[in-house]
Amino acid sequence: MSTAVDIAGPSSPDQAHSSAKIPNEPLRPSLKRSNHPYGLSHYISTPSQAVDVKGLIQPSPAQQRAAQPAHAKPRRAPSWPDMWESPSGLHLAHAAELLMRAGLLALTPAATEQASLGAQSSQPAKREAAEAKTGKGEGEGGGGGSGPEEEEEDSSGCGTDFQPFLGAWFPFSPALFPLAGFQMGGGHWRSAAMGAEGIEGLVAEGYSPGSLGTSSGGKRKRKRCGECVPCRRQTNCEQCSSCRNRKRGHQICKYRKCEELKRKPGGPGFESRVSGFDLRGSDFTLGLAQERSNGALDG
DNA sequence: ATGAACGTTATA
DNA sequence: TATAACGTTCAT
Fold first, then answer.
1. Which residues touch strand C (CB under 7 A)?
2. Which stretches does the entry tag as region Disordered (predicted)?
3. More confident residue, A2 or A238
4. Which of A78, A129, A212, A273 maximizes the CB count within 10 A of its CB?
């Protein structure tokens, strides 16, 4: 699936052992140590090359050369800081998402073009979006268990070092925005699914319609959103405590833990997120604060 | 506050 | 029935 994420690169056969459903690949070791060194303000105010998101989207030839070593494996440019990697996702991805939320990131035509290249596979993406909406293709094991065709698309979208990140890691492409169920405009950023009334909002929040059953009232499990960076990870790191302790811990890999599920169900912003999402409102601020508190945005 | 362990629910 | 993983509790 074109929007599926796998930053771990090709797996070795013996890495895909521990789970039948999840292709297990160890994360790059650096994932373990990085932790979002930059906050939103940093991305917005610092014009340095290190945080020049536009530059990353549309890298200069020099950057492209730097980022494109001899072999095809995606590899970050040596001159860039550890923005590519972080426990909860990529710094770059994070920054870009924040900027997009804030409406500060404008896609250049070239970037759009490039992204739409990666979006050739809009069909599977559509399917994933639909599945995410119905709560069906939750696909433990990788945002919808990667079939052979999907893997093909993954690799075909990796012509450059940037496409796998821009096209797959987060929905940079405008084409992917509607697919992911997001709308932007007039300063408002909201999930189309969340915008829907009633149960749909809760579904978007991670509650399956079934889990919202009126009668039982027992503990119901929320579902992963399928859209956040961790959800898009396809692989377990096999190194975190959750992976190492899976039998006892019963927990998903730390790097795959849905951001939405990290929030308390009744926590701040829950209701407003259900009824709608206003960028300029306190919800956004709260969200940022929450992400900070999650350690995702520490700066 | 954080992480480990366990109970429980959801799904194949 | 097996497995994955969410939610809760408890120890640190």
1. A 18-22, 140-141, 206, 219, 221-224, 236, 246, 249-253, 256-258, 261, 265
2. 1-43, 55-83, 115-158
3. A238
4. A129
* Res A264: pLDDT: 75
Mean of pLDDT values over A100-105: 46
**Distances, alpha carbon A66 to alpha carbons A4, A74, A87, A128, A143, in Å:** 25, 12, 24, 33, 31
**Using CA atoms, how far apart are residues A205 and A200, in angstroms rounded to an integer?**
8
List Cα–Cα distances, A35 to A32, A85, A98, in angstroms.
8, 8, 16
Phi, psi of A184 (to 5 degrees): -130, 145
Three-state DSSP at A273 gives helix
Estimate in Å the CA A263 to C1' B10 gap, whole number.
20
Radius of gyration of chain A (CA): 18
What angle do helix axes A122-134 and A148-156 make, rounded to 10 degrees?
130
Query: If you ran DSSP here, which 8-state letter would residue A165 be given?
Result: I
The Cα–Cα gap between A165 and A172 comes to 9
Chain segment A188-235, per-residue pLDDT in tens: 333 333 333 344 444 444 554 444 433 334 568 899 988 888 998 888
At residue A215, what is the residue type?
Answer: S
User: What's the rounded Cα separation, in Å, for the pair A31 and A24?
Assistant: 15
Token pair 């970037």 is at which residue? A111
Say what the pTM is. Answer: 0.40
Provide the 10 A C-beta neighbour count for residue A260.
20
Instruction: Kindly report, residue by residue over A132-168, the tens digit of the pLDDT.
Output: 333 333 333 333 333 333 333 333 333 333 233 333 3
